[in-house]
Amino acid sequence: MTKPLENKLALVTGASRGIGAATAVALAAQGAHVVLTARTAKALEEVEETIFDAGGSATIAPLDLAENEAIARLATAIGERWQALDVMVMNAGMLGTLSAVPAIDAKEFASILTLNVSAQQALIAAFDPMFRRSAGARVIGITSSVGRTPRAYWGAYGASKAAFETLLSAYGDEMAEISKIRTAILDPGATRTKMRARAYPGEDPASVKPPETVAARIVALAIDGFEAGHTERVDA
User: Fold this and answer.
1) Hey, where are the domains in the chain?
2) Integer distance in angstroms from the first to the last C-alpha of the chain?
3) How does 137-171 read in b/e, with b if 16+ C-beta sit within 10 Å?
4) Could you state, in chain order, the average pLDDT of each consecutive group of 10 residues for the chain (236 residues)?
């Protein structure tokens, strides 16, 4: 039987673990060829092996999105092999140190903004031509509730997510009437990830949902589509 995402190309950033890894596996299970990016090659290889063992197909592209020219090189390599990019899951992000706003380390804050904002804009710009060649590209950005509801000690990360949401949503608005590109903002809510464990070290991991729950929702969006300006939170 034909799978819903057969002959589709997907790119997942931050795909070496957590929500990114679970999403890559789930997309491949529905027939997509998935390009996996993250900094750690060994972890990417493990995700790739999981996909292969289940009968799926994937390509790994180890890189640091915050590096100069890394995204341009990635887009060139993918564009030389494939005509269009049908799904992008923008999952890579940096939490940084939770601290009061006056105590935010300037150097670390710059790193957070580089990965969580500047690199995301660079991804959109680099892959825009491939999105336009898709029959209906889905660009899904992973956010956090602190991007819309400020919380004490979460100022740096929250500011970066607010900026990311604005960029992705603006791009979606720009594309809505002139193309079939659609963007969505997805807040995964409390999820069992390493980032969550860093932020809430005393929390029982079993008390929050696994990343596979979020991945299932992302894949449903990729398959079923959504209206322009779509936003949602995965609570269960």
Assistant:
1) 9-233
2) 30
3) bbbbbbbbbbbeeeeebbbbbbbbbbbbbebbbeb
4) 96 98 98 97 98 98 96 98 98 97 98 98 98 98 97 98 98 97 97 93 94 98 96 93
> Is 157 noted as a catalytic residue in this protein?
yes
pTM value is: 0.96
| Residue in 153, 157, 171, 200 annotated catalytic | 157
CA dist 73 and 80 (Å) reads 11
Whose tokens are 């590096």? That residue is 67
Biggest CA-to-CA distance, the chain: 57
Class of domain 9-233: alpha beta
Q: Tell me the DSSP string of 66-134.
A: TSTTHHHHHHHHHHHH-S---EEEE----------GGG--HHHHHHHHIIIIIHHHHHHHHHHHHHHTS
